[in-house]
Amino acid sequence: MKTKAVLLILCLFLYSTINAQQPASAETILKEAYKQAATQKKNVFVLFHASWCGWCHKMDTAMNDPKVKKLFTDNYVIEHLVVYESKSKKQLENPGAEDLLKKHYGNDKGIPYWLVFDAKGNLLADSKERAENGGPETGDNVGCPASEKEVAYFINVLKKTSSLKEEQLSIIAKRFRENEH
User: Fold this and answer.
1) Whole-model pTM?
2) How confident is the model at residue 137 (pLDDT cuts 50, 70, 90)?
3) DSSP alpha helices (H): ranges in 105-147?
């Protein structure tokens, strides 16, 4: 009887530990983000990334730089979705994130890859260069903008999907150009 009780407790502990480590699904994260965006009158900026990705870390560092962080958080609900982890870190991935990436044609573009949605879940922009956002129609992933061309594209997307003013966009552009060095 004592052994069964110990085994039951152990099983419950393992079950709760496994479930506690399971990241939220992409659907759950986006549903909450859309609700927050509607309440706060913002758009949703979704960043696909992985723990091993150097450019993903550069993107996070740039967006969280004190010079620009408030500019982003005042205009966007920012969410991260983990994809493409190594076998030993697959448990970090958000269920459904890779499907969302494929749905928006980013699965073969590399990471970081980003999408901008309105509060109703309509796609406003993505990180693929397109003529309507001031870039050439290459479909290349801008990812973490660094070059002059990439930053110009990123700024055009921000201009179309936020209430950022020219002066603020200029500050963001300057910060992202630092990524090239």
Assistant:
1) 0.85
2) low
3) none
